Amino acid sequence: MTQDWPRPSDEEVRAYCEQGFREDRTLSRLLREQAAARPDATALVSPSGRLTYAALDSRVDRLARGLAGLPVRAGERVLVRLPNREEYVLALFALLRVGAVPVPVLPSLGPAEVESLARTSGACALVVADRYGRSDPRAEAVRIAGRLPGVRHVLVAGGPGDSPARPLDALYAPEAGPLEEAASPEDLALLLLSGGTTGTPKLIPRTHADYGYNALASARACGVGPDTVYLAVLPAAHNFTMVSPGLVGVLASGGTVVLCPDPSPTTAFGLVEREGATLTSLVPALLPSWLDEARRTRADLSSLRVLQVGGSRLDEGTARRIGPELGCRLQQVFGMAEGLNNYTPLDAPEDLVCTTQGRPLSPADEVLVVDGDGAPVPPGAPGELLTRGPYTLRGYYRARELDALCFTPDGFYRTGDLVTRSADGDLVVVGRVKDQVNRAGEKIAAVEVEEHLLALPGVRAAAVVGAPDPHLGERSVAFVVAEGPAPTREEVRAAMLRRGAAPHKVPDEVRGVPGLPLTGVGKVDKGSLREREGL
Ligand code: J2J
C-alpha cells in the first residue's frame, strides 16, 4: 500500500520521543487532562458565552458521540470552515476525539478553493457556518457535496438545518461520560493548508505527537500557564492561532482562550479590558490600526503582557513602537504551518526583539541556510532556509511528486524563505525565493492567480508579483499581456469571483504590458519584471 504521507523513520521517532521532542498524548487527551485538573476554570470565552474546562470537555464528548453516530470514522477527513466562534473549538476537539482528521480552512476562502480542498483531502463531511459576511457557506457546501460523492454530510453551525445540511447542534448526544480516545499519538491529527506556491492546494499532515509538542513547547517558550488569557484575534483556523502557542497550547496548559469575532482594535480592546487578556497574536498589517486606536482611545491594555507578531515581516520602526505605546512586550514569531516555529526569547534585549524574527523553538530543530547550489553560507549571509525536526513535515499529503521539489533527499523542508542567521542562531527573514505574495500575512500562490488571469478571453500571458505596500506589507500586482485592451481590475475581480476564488486573491492592481521578460529557460523572469516596472 502506498503511504499517504512520508514520516520520519521509526528510529528518528524513537529518538525524538526519548528526548521529549514529541508529545505522547493525543490532542484531545491534553484537553481531557486539564478538565480533570481544573474543572471549574474558564477554558473558552466567545460571543456564545463562557465554558469551564469541565463543560468544554463534556460538550466535546457529546458532540464526538454524535459525530461517531453519523458515522464519522477514525481516519476520515472533515473540512472545518468556521470563523472565531465556540463551535470551531468544539468541532475541532470532537473530531480529534473520534480519531477523525479535521482540515481547518479559513472562512475567507472562495467556494472553488473549498471544493478543491475537499477533493484533495477526500473529506467525508464539511462543517460550515450558517452565514459568513456576504457569502453563504451552507449553500456552497451543499453544492460541493452534490458534486463530490465522498462528502456524506454537511454540518451547519449556528443555524437551522434543512436537508441535506443538518445543524451541528442537533448532533450533541445526551451526557454519557467520557468517550474513549480513538487515536494514538503517532496518528494523523490534522491536515493544514499550505501557504502554497502551486495551483492546487498542498495539505500538510500533522500528527498528535508533533502538533502537541509544537503547541506545548511553544506554550513553555511563551510563558503560558493557567493564568494566561489568550485573545485569539487572527482566524482560529490559522496555524499561528492554533499552536504558536495558540488555542491548542493555551488549552493544553490550563489557560483561558477568548475568541475575538473580528480583528478590529475596537472589538479586541474591549475584550482585552473585559477579560484581562495577557497574550495575543497579530500579523504586522493589523498593527497600525491597533497603535492608532490605542493612542486615540487610551484603552486600558495593562493586562496585556506579550504581543506576538508574525506571519510576515515586521519593520523595525513599528516594532519599536509596541513597548512604549501598547505597554507590553513584543515577541516576533516566524512560523509556518509546515512546522518550524521561531520565537524571540521573552527575556531578550529590546534590540534583538525588534530586529530579528527569532530562533527555533526546539533544540532538535535542524536549520540550514544555503546558497543556490545547496551549500551552507557563512553566518550573517543570506540564503534559503532549510529545516528538519521533530514537528516539521517530511512530505505533503498524497503529493509524492511535489515532495521531490519541496524537500531535500535527506528530508529537509525547503521553506522558500531567504534568511540570515547570526552566529547566535537568530534568524532574520530578508526575502523569499518562493513564487508567492504575502498580502497582510495571507499567502497567495502567484501561479494560482495567473491561472485565473489566463482563463480570461484574450489574455496571452500573465505574471503576478508582490510589491511593497505601506498597509498590507505587500500588495499583489498582475502584469497581463492581452490581445487588444488588457482587462481592468474590476473585470478581473468579477471573473475571479465567478470562478470561485477568494476575494483577497484578486490582484490589487492590474497592468497591461506588451510582453514579459523571460529567463534563459523561457520562464517569466520576475526579478527583471519587478525592476523594469519599478516595483
Ligand atoms: C517574515 N515572514 C514570515 C515573519 C511567517 C506562527 C507564525 C506565522 C505562521 C505563518 C505560522 C514570518 N516574518 N515573522 O504558521 O505557526 C512567512 C514565511 C513563512 C510563511 C508561512 C505560525 N512568519 N512568515 O505565517 O504557513 O514566508 O504560517 O514561510 O501561513 O509565512 O506561512 P503560514
UniProtKB/TrEMBL annotation:
<dbReference type="InterPro" id="IPR045851">
    <property type="entry name" value="AMP-bd_C_sf"/>
</dbReference>
<dbReference type="InterPro" id="IPR050237">
    <property type="entry name" value="ATP-dep_AMP-bd_enzyme"/>
</dbReference>
<dbReference type="GO" id="GO:0016878">
    <property type="term" value="F:acid-thiol ligase activity"/>
</dbReference>
<keyword id="KW-0436">Ligase</keyword>
<feature type="domain" description="AMP-binding enzyme C-terminal">
    <location>
        <begin position="448"/>
        <end position="523"/>
    </location>
</feature>
<dbReference type="Pfam" id="PF13193">
    <property type="entry name" value="AMP-binding_C"/>
</dbReference>
<protein>
    <submittedName>
        <fullName>2,3-dihydroxybenzoate-AMP ligase</fullName>
    </submittedName>
</protein>
<dbReference type="InterPro" id="IPR020845">
    <property type="entry name" value="AMP-binding_CS"/>
</dbReference>
<feature type="domain" description="AMP-dependent synthetase/ligase">
    <location>
        <begin position="31"/>
        <end position="397"/>
    </location>
</feature>
<dbReference type="Pfam" id="PF00501">
    <property type="entry name" value="AMP-binding"/>
</dbReference>
<dbReference type="InterPro" id="IPR000873">
    <property type="entry name" value="AMP-dep_synth/lig_dom"/>
</dbReference>
<dbReference type="InterPro" id="IPR042099">
    <property type="entry name" value="ANL_N_sf"/>
</dbReference>
<dbReference type="InterPro" id="IPR025110">
    <property type="entry name" value="AMP-bd_C"/>
</dbReference>
